[in-house]
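#struct-queue
[09:14] JT: dropping the first one here, sequence first, then the structure tokens:
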Amino acid sequence: MAKPRVFISSTFYDLRQLREDLDDFIRSMGYEAVRNEEGNIPFGI
């Protein structure tokens, strides 16, 4: 079974530490965290 994915969104430069903390928390809960700055968002046309 695939892990549920959680998208973390906010402006890019501020709140960076908060997004990193959320990423750690989400992963500790067994989910996959998805953040734009990590480059793991697929874009389709």
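[09:21] JT: and here's the second one, same format:
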Amino acid sequence: MTTIAEELDALCHDAGFVDRSDRALVTVSGPDALSFLQSILSQDLAPLAPGDSAHTLLLTPQGKLDADIRLVRAADDEIWLDAEPGAGEHLAASLNRFRIRVKADVDDRSDAFGFVSVRGPRVGELEPGAREIDGTRIMPAPAGFDVVGPLDAVAAVMDALRAGGVRECRADAYEALRILQGVPRQGVDLDDKTIPQEAFLERDAVSFTKGCFLGQELVCRIDSRGHVNRFLRGLEVAGTSGARPPRGAEILSDGKAVGSVTSVSPVDDAPWRALGYVRREVEPPADVVLRWDGGEAPARVTATPATTAS
């Protein structure tokens, strides 16, 4: 059996796929589906043609994060919203609160849909049959793509990938890749107190020109004349000996607490990779110390990449 480190290597340097069918899937369908979502979500959806996808956010009226979403326009009048595992019921309920005199139905279809992520520099060499299965939709992603659709159709995609020699990888390998790429995850790095700019979500999930959306006032005010007090950063933790730094470990700069760790890679590598929030005054690259009950380790704060879609 391959190790998680070997699977991560395939996702980074060859080609691999991960079954992520535990993710939530909410459908919005009907003649007003697009206009309804355009009025409340942070991204400009008007240019999307059937088959197109986008990263977007559902914010609270106060500008805090409600849901981090990958959206695909599956048809003219049907839109699929991909979200974190277990988030389907909450997302559907949040959308329905704003569905007033709208000709659109919102349904949690998580149990009926599958999701597979394909990553690596060789994915462009895959035969079309390994990804283009009737009923599925493809969403571009950093260094690869995602396929979403009914369970049986996604299962056929995974069978085609296996037949094509693409390595099947486990969830831990994808988690390690996510942290390496600096992609935040809701429920881990993001919560209902997160302001989009703290995790750089505005880079590819917010339109500042589309007009009104939920939470727009705070997000636009920060963009035009304000700032946030912390940022989500990468962390390179020196060495692999001793205990693994835990989620929640304190980040110290010159002996002063400046943040905390939110994610730690499950792969034992040198250096360990992690994500955490640090005060805005700590500009990367910066040397810090991680401290937790029973241990500490030196680390370096690094900038996060330019994409935030998971």
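[09:30] RK: nice, looked through the second one.
[09:31] RK: The helical segments are 4-13, 33-40, 88-97, 151-163, 171-181, 202-205, 216-225.
[09:31] JT: good to know. The mean pLDDT is 93.
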